[in-house]
Specification:
Layout lengths: L4 H18 L17 E7 L2 E9 L3 E7 L2 E9 L5 E7 L2 E12 L2 E10 L2 E4 L6 E6 L3 E7 L5 E8 L2 E2 L4 E7 L3 E5 L2 E5 L5 E10 L6 E10 L4 E7 L1
Parallel strand pairs: 11-18
Antiparallel strand pairs: 1-2, 2-3, 3-4, 4-5, 5-6, 6-7, 7-8, 9-17, 10-18, 11-12, 11-15, 13-16, 14-15, 16-17
């Protein structure tokens, strides 16, 4: 729960004042070009502009990375209204991943996700998850550019395509079976999708036949490649 506005301002300014005391007097010859935080600056400087790690205070406050006078990189921006954003900035604008907090009726509301040109565009895409992996040395999920909703599975061994796949069995929660060269998978998939891959193959020395299982879920729509290495 948020404190009242007066207490919040005190809490906001205390770390800033401590930073100023520890790091000596503000640099009058090093400018911050972003309005709202351009009154006081302490930190790294390059050619007369805030550049590197620093703290800037005005009506608002920002602590983090700067580039050529603007917040650029990871940092925390705190508005006098009680809003805060911790995440990535590009030329003073929120860009990429971040967490935005703001007060509503005395409660703190948090919005986490992705920003583009200072505008929230949605939640951070959820990474694929592996539910079961048996006799798989390593795996890789790769999302390709394109509009297809598809999942293709590739098999590798000893740095090359594994052409010794036996008794391959694929099951899915959606989609239609498809093949592309040596790749196997599903087209017209509805996400999230869960796919189970079962097959047999010889080990790297071709001395023993091993049974392999790879069960996974992909949440984000797209054209996916799943690479399995034995």
């Amino acid at each position: 729960m948020l404190l009242n506005k007066k207490s919040w301002i005190v809490q906001l300014l205390l770390p800033a004042l401590f930073f100023l005391v520890v790091n000596a007097q503000a640099q009058d010859d090093c400018k911050v070009l972003q309005a709202g935080i351009d009154s006081v600056y302490v930190g790294k400087c390059k050619k007369g502009l805030a550049h590197g790690d620093g703290l800037a205070i005005g009506t608002d406050q920002y602590e983090g990375r700067f580039k050529q006078g603007f917040p650029n990189g990871h940092g925390t921006y705190a508005w006098a209204t009680g809003e805060t954003f911790t995440g990535n900035f590009v030329n003073g604008l929120r860009e990429g991943e971040g967490i935005y907090s703001y007060p509503v009726d005395g409660m703190e509301v948090t919005l986490e996700g992705i920003w583009k040109d200072d505008v929230y565009i949605g939640e951070k895409p959820r990474k694929p998850s592996v539910r079961q992996s048996v006799s798989i040395d390593r795996h890789n999920f790769r999302k390709n550019a394109g509009s297809k909703n598809r999942v293709l599975i590739d098999f590798f061994q000893n740095g090359d395509r594994n052409k010794g796949i036996l008794n391959l069995l694929l099951t899915t929660t959606s989609g239609y079976p498809t093949e592309l060269g040596q790749s196997r998978g599903y087209d017209e998939v509805t996400f999230p999708v869960t796919i189970t891959v079962k097959y047999e193959t010889f080990n790297k020395l071709h001395t023993t036949l091993i049974h392999c299982v790879f069960d996974f879920t992909i949440y984000e729509p797209g054209d996916w490649r799943v690479e399995l290495f034995n």
